[in-house]
Amino acid sequence: MKRTELFFSIFLVPLDFTALLLAAFVAQKIRFLDVVEGFRPAVYTTTTENLAFYACVVAAVWIFLFALAGLYSRRITDSFYNQFLRIVAACSAGLVFVIFVVFLHRDFFSSRFIILAAWFLAICFVTVLRIAIRKVQHLLFRYGIAARRVAIIGTSGTAEELVAQIKLHVDSGYRVVVALPPTEVSLLTLRELVNKRAIDELIYADARASSEERALFLEFSESNHLTFRYTPDLLHSAVRRPVVNVEIGIPLVEVPVTKIEGWGRIFKRAIDVVAGVCGLLFFSPLFVFVAVGIFFETGRPIIYVSERVGRGGLFTFYKFRSMYLKDSTGEQYGGAAAQQLHDELVATSGSRGGPVPKVANDPRVTPFGVWLRRLSLDELPQFWNILKGDMSLIGPRPHLPWEVSRYEKHHRKVLAIKPGLTGLSQVSGRSDLDFEEEVRLDRYYIEEWSPFLDMLIVLRTISAIFRSRRAL
Is the domain 148-255 a CATH 3.40.50.970 member? Predict the structure, then answer.
């Protein structure tokens, strides 16, 4: 989701809340009109203050239902008809909630007319509001503002028709930046186009392409954080949970990379900020204890600093040093000699192959470092990475550049989100997992993310740390 789309989604929350309050107050005004009173006299009255309180409570619940219905996560390029159906469904679910509460607590609110009128008016007001916002966005699109910048790859007539339809529907939210046949596109040139021309979305429209070519462009989109769409005749086994888009006359299908987009990303970042602050404050006594232990065992530096690869590229990664200084890899530590020792240990004592090898009973780790690693205390400085935004509390583990350079295509999916301090693979076996199994678990997390899954991983992380403590 583009930042402008995210802005409008956030902006819709207070607007929807206001529309729901307005629906409640207008419904009350209508109920006490003379014409309505003459038809059916009112037997229930309430003060404006009470109505305001009830309306605020109900509106808050309805906003939550709107979010569950996806009304704050849809792009402007999606069908408004589908959005209207979501509005009706969410408001109807809210109506059921109100009826249920009134059934249990008759004194809460008992005007059936106001309840039903407010439900109908809420649908009308929210729909009109969405139409107005949509018109504003369409006006911006006509001037080339906030549109999704698209690269179209294809040689078929479908690709040509797609370009023509996007140019015809200037308010669709799309803007074709480049259209090229697959034979003229290499991943290198495409990456340059993405970087130089700020591409948001890649649309693949070539029915004659092989499945390998399609998979190649899909993998490229995932690793470069682009939305990937294609025409329906290109449906293949790599596509999961397609979302159809029909706003520009030609149906398109989106391949969802992760649910951590839009409001999901906002929610996850908010949790990360809280976790970063709380982690640094809560564990500050341990920071001092660990720093003193490392200093008296092997001296300075206390913190091991290296470069890791995250969602946005390279970032500075922090952890407590758990190896002897001369054996720590990196130019500022053991240098070439340490790297050579690492390679020898991987060859002779490697407990796991693949792009990210592990060394069993690593002799480079200090006695105090063994204890730190067993309790995962060496990872505590990464709360600073989380607070900075380089990492998340939960996600795939970050790897070194030379390790990432050895990834196979399907491994690069783990770069679609920020790396994490803990994650599904870490709580499912930690260093005992085969790398392919680790990637499989990380891909599952990326595709199936939910707040509940994050909560479950946090609880399992705490459990794993306490199991390690008992093992000492």
Answer: no
